[in-house]
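Q: Convert this sequence to structure tokens.
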Amino acid sequence: MADKQRTVRLPKNPKPKEWLAKDHSLGYIADYKPFNFVDGEGVRCSIYVSGCLFNCPGCYNKAAQNFHYGQPYTQELEDQIIEDLSHDYVQGLTLLGGEPFLNTPVLLKLCKRVRKEFGHQKDIWSWSGYTWEELLKDSDDKKELLSLVDILVDGRFLLAKKDLTLQFRGSSNQRIIDVQKSFKAGKVVIWDKLQH
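A:
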């Protein structure tokens, strides 16, 4: 008797500009976690946006895939994030989700304010199911958000490549990219503090 082949379900793979924030984002926030140590280097303030279409099997934050999950983004929350970031011991802001690049109406406003108030004294990290290459071919709002980010952890979470020993990543296909150095070099430049 032949072994049944097991079907491996994969995340969805959008074409460039197939998924647009203006069509999907409802401006909801799944969570906000100030002063944490797990979402990037140093002490971070992390905003988890609601809504993701990648539907990666094994997603650690499945509830946040729903664009209606959580609470609407408010000016009060934005002001609180800016206040929390103002502490000297806070290194920066982290964008997670859900999918940050499908929530550009909220995150562009926030990231522009971070740059206005702090310049580059505070760094911005983002996780995304999109790859660097996909973002460069996508809509202007996604490219604008990318231009405001310092470090991008890119790519779908792949259950078959799950590795809990990796630094700041869930699966080995994901990269930690120095965004600003990559723009200058015209190619992907991996974060120089990568340990494994």
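The radius of gyration is 17 Å.
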